[in-house]
Amino acid sequence: MTHIYGYARVSSVDQDLSIQEAALRAAGATIIRSEKKSGTTTEGRDELATLIEFARAGDTIMVTRIDRLARSIADLAQIVRTLEKKGVHLKATEQPIDTSSPAGRAFLQMLGVFAEFETAIRRERQLEGIAQAKAKGVYKGRKQSIDADKIKELVAAGKGATEIAKELNIGRASVYRYLKA
């Protein structure tokens, strides 16, 4: 007996999964795994890992859109390879993706390229916005977590980088960075 499993994902805690879950149920998913995690990597996405591990040959994993599954072509390709090895199909409710057909696999690969491109463009815009904010003096970055004066004080007391790092509970490389500056 084959099963259809749904996977729903949103990026942040304040976003709602109910629309995706309802669409997956309406498309025939009997079990739905959901999580609120970034899609930029598969690491830490335990529900997805559980679903991939649990699915058996002939089963289908369904998503609403491919960007709910992966944001990079590398992650998408790895997920698809893993599913293919297990004999598990991948379908999307809002896109003509069905890895059980050659046309569905081709469309999946094209969408993966566009998703990765979109992520790169978004990252570029973020960096431009940060640069503009810095130029205006609005963006300061995060507060320094290392006390440079304390490092200087400990160096003056004759302590080495390893000893300073242990005492301040920071990395030795950070101590060297401050000493170099």
Report what the structure shows.
It is a single chain. The protein is an alpha/beta fold and 181 residues long. 51% of the residues lie in helices and 12% in strands. The longest helix has 35 residues, at 102-136. The protein is elongated and about 70 Å long. The mean pLDDT is 87.
Short structural summary:
The protein is an alpha/beta fold and 181 residues long. The chain contains seven helices and four strands.
Termini gap: 65 Å
- Uncertain regions: pLDDT < 50 for 5+ in a row? none
Order of helices and strands: EHEHEHEHHHH
**Sheet of most strands:** 4 strands, parallel
Mean pLDDT: 87
> What fraction of the residues are assigned to beta strands by DSSP?
5-15%
Based on Cα principal axes, name the global outline. Answer: elongated
Helix proportion of residues, in percent? 40-55%
Strand order of the largest sheet: 2-1-3-4
Kindly state the number of beta strands: 4
Structure class: alpha/beta
Calculate Rg over CA atoms: 23 Å
Count of helix runs: 7
Give the arrangement of secondary structure elements.
Blueprint: E1 4-10, H1 18-26, E2 31-36, H2 46-54, E3 60-63, H3 73-86, E4 89-92, H4 102-136, H5 148-156, H6 161-168, H7 172-180
Parallel strand pairs: 1-2, 1-3, 3-4
Helix pairs in contact: 6-7
Task: Name the features.
7 helices; 181 residues; 51% helix
